[in-house]
Amino acid sequence: MTNEAAACRACGSPMTPFMRFGRMPVANAFVTEDQFAREYFYELAAALCAPCGMFQIVDHPDPAQMFHDSYAFFTRTSKGMVAHFRTYAEWVAERFLKKPDAFVVEVGCNDGALIENFATGGLRHLGIEPSANVAAVANRHGVRTRVAFFDPETARAVRASDGPADAIVAANVICHIPNIRGVAEGVATLLAPHGVFAFEEPYLGAMIAKASYDQIYDEHVFIFSARAVAAVFAPFGLELIDTVPQATHGGSMRYVLGRKGAHSVSPSVARTLAEEGRQGLHLAATYDEFRRRCERNRDELVGLIRDLRRQGQRVVGYAATSKSTTVLNYCGLGPHDIEFISDTTPLKQGKFTPGSHIPVRSPEAFADPYPGFAVLFGWNHETEILGKEKAFAAAGGRWIKFVPEVRLS
After folding, report:
1. What whole-number distance in Å separates Cα of residue 59 and Cα of residue 45?
2. Which domain holds residue 23?
3. pLDDT at 301 exceeding the cut of 60
């Protein structure tokens, strides 16, 4: 990647990266030892488009490198997210799905944890999911699923077979789709005249406030703000009608859009846009300071871990997340720093973390025996994890946290 300006995926304006993370593997591509030599890497860099406000990574792997029949993320591994999605589905149904024959489509339904709530409520539904292995799990849970990427062609096919959608929902997936204008066109194609498009994503304001740079990785092509969402969907006749902050993933936002003029606009939209202005999300200086905070965080985390290792302490990781791939590779941490990472996902266990090649082991390994220190890579699920791992603290174990700053607890 050069220093030349790239084109914004949302509006086409030129933009230049303000931060570079170096060579990065596919975040969820956990590998076996015989795959080390042929691992795929790309250059990870972040940029802000000044005209439309879209925060995005400049380069990214082909989506087929990330979403396939060996995709290693399953929503149902988090009880907290399953509960959140139940509440999310109830919110959408109560507010927008009054028709007895309402039709709901989920973009990127993963293992069906969200759309299952509509299915069990007897609503017509369809999950769209490009990764065949997780789509199969959704099917087993009674979710009608189509294995495909969401784009205008898929939207036309669904409308032809099932009719227009009264609600299109998504969670933590729209930011994965590089062709965001194709998403907007697809939504405009599939949505009923008074339908809504509701989606949740990690929120740019929260990421900047917490310096949570681990939100930046290949799947997160975008980190959205209300300003950017309004700008990218407007040319397709869609307007932002509500914004609802969420605690998930370290700070997310639920965006609701409808056809222009079809719904009243909540006062929350103006409040959110005003707060983004006060936070300076449109200013280059904000991102320069964010970069400096990230560099400081990196240096302090590496220093703490290596000091502990020099003292003979055992340090392991907890939760082999996609976000941890950015942390490990940006910080240059490897198996000499972190003994292994404990994770509940069977597909990751027995493999190694992308790029950094730290072994991934089952939760049983975490307690056999407990280490002195554990890096909390799954910090966005902290309440759930700490509640489950009280025995670690009782045994004298301490958590290494790095968001919003490096500290021991």
Report:
1. 7
2. 6-60
3. yes
